[in-house]
Design brief:
Helices cover 83% and strands 0% of the residues. By secondary structure, the protein is an all-alpha fold. Helix 3 packs antiparallel against helix 5, helix 3 packs antiparallel against helix 6 and helix 3 crosses helix 8. The longest helix has 40 residues. The chain is elongated, with a radius of gyration of 23 Å.
């Protein structure tokens, strides 16, 4: 390595660090733009033939705002309201009845205050997701700016995506067959994570949330968010919420509602999970659900709400890269 190469490598390293510092406050929105562009690009290709590239990108962005961004913003606002109410001890649950039932079950006095426990959990979740109460306002402002940035990035990624991929392929110092293999694995992993695990978990949580809403469980949006994370665990994920919810209805004397919720959970929520995952998830992108769950929890803890999507994708890309390295270079 000559002095010129060494200088260029040092310059690349320094500029890369500075770039990361600049992008870091909106890193989750940059990742989200990549995910949206990745999902929308196949539709963009088909629509582009009819209306042109610019019109196709604009139509898809407007459609994304109407179908995803606006409903998501409303859900997040309701979730925030529910979360702050729970953190303040306003759960709307009959915690006294639950404590009495638990005391009878363990044949003794039940000392734990459920309201205090739920309040503590709510405060902890606010701390993790938004860095405390003061971070809620900051999150709202950053989300508005970040969403605008994300939509602009989606537009340019849809327009210039192939050129960017071609540039990256030529720039990566790997043999062409290794680069192609790596890209195909990243594509399979990303599709399996975004379209498979995450979309199935979100739809299952929404289905279960509808059941909670129908039978009158309070703070439905909060519990639906919890189920969205837990649903990444097959079979038992959403049950950890709707199961105790059905039990709660029995405890407070609403037997019919409890039976209906239990039947709905068994024959609708669970069956959806059993049939949707094998159909939707690409069999070439088999990722252990535990790995996905680590990505979700770690992503949420590291960068907040949007880490729910970004975390698993990053881990999926890492898995694809390691697999390519094992296949191509670990032969000694």
């Amino acid at each position: 390595m000559n002095r010129g190469q060494a200088f260029l490598l040092l310059l690349i390293g320094l500029v890369s660090v500075l770039t990361l510092l600049i992008v870091a406050p909106f890193l989750e929105y940059v990742v989200a733009s990549l995910i949206f562009a990745y999902v929308l690009y196949p539709i963009h290709i088909r629509l582009e033939r009819r209306v042109g590239g610019v019109a196709s990108a604009i139509i898809l962005i407007v459609g994304t705002v109407v179908a995803v961004i606006v409903p998501l913003a409303y859900i997040v606002s309701v979730f925030l309201a529910d979360l702050r109410a729970i953190a303040a001890g306003e759960t709307a649950l009959d915690t006294d009845a639950i404590e009495v039932a638990l005391s009878e079950f363990i044949d003794g006095e039940f000392d734990l205050e459920l309201t205090e426990l739920l309040s503590l959990a709510g405060n902890q979740l606010i701390q993790v997701l938004f860095d405390g109460y003061t971070g809620v306002v900051t999150f709202a402002l950053q989300a508005a700016i970040g969403t605008a940035l994300m939509l602009f990035l989606v537009y340019y990624l849809l327009q210039d995506g192939p050129e960017f991929i071609a540039w990256a392929t030529d720039t990566v110092p790997l043999p062409p067959h290794v680069t192609d293999d790596l890209l195909s694995k990243i594509d399979a992993m990303t599709w399996g994570v975004v379209i498979g695990h995450i979309s199935v978990a979100l739809v299952q949580a929404l289905i279960a949330g509808v059941g909670l809403w129908v039978v009158g469980i309070p703070n439905v949006v909060f519990w639906t968010f919890v189920m969205a994370v837990l649903s990444l665990l097959p079979l038992i994920g959403a049950f950890l919420v709707w199961g105790p919810a059905a039990g709660y209805l029995f405890v407070v004397g609403e037997t019919t509602a409890g039976v209906l919720l239990a039947l709905y959970g068994i024959f609708v929520v669970s069956l959806f999970d059993n049939y949707a995952r094998p159909i939707v998830i690409d069999q070439q992108a088999r990722l252990n659900p535990a790995v996905i769950l680590v990505g979700v929890v770690g992503g949420v803890y590291a960068i907040g709400f949007t880490g729910l999507f970004a975390g698993p994708v990053v881990i999926g890309v890492l898995a694809a890269t390691l697999e390519t390295f094992r296949k191509e270079y670990d032969r000694i």
